[in-house]
């Protein structure tokens, strides 16, 4: 046996570790129906302007990334991308959505869009608070 660390661990092996942890967790539960989910907006030339990615699983939308091109921010595109991602999740039978951010102003935007802060960690990264927010469409049984 031998150990590898940092850059000596291949990208493929890092991904195998990540996949192994997720697989193990899903084996402990029943009914995993994980599916990737995405929504993106393009201009007329095909350039990406905004988008979101995540997954749906266990009747929950997990939003991993929400991005708007810098020069297009402040125009409501982020909210529209999120609403469209939520609509897809609702069609898949999701009853709630979970999203996180390190930015106070973004957390306030999510709250404006119907999310409630369920946890926060001050100085998660020096100078930033990690906000975890949940939006409930239908209560769980």
From TrEMBL:
UniProt cross-references to InterPro entries, sorted A to Z: Acyl_CoA_acyltransferase, GNAT_dom
Domain N-acetyltransferase: 1-139
Domain of life: Bacteria
Pfam families: Acetyltransf_1
Annotated CDD domains: NAT_SF (cd04301)
Protein name: GNAT family N-acetyltransferase
Organism field: Roseateles rivi
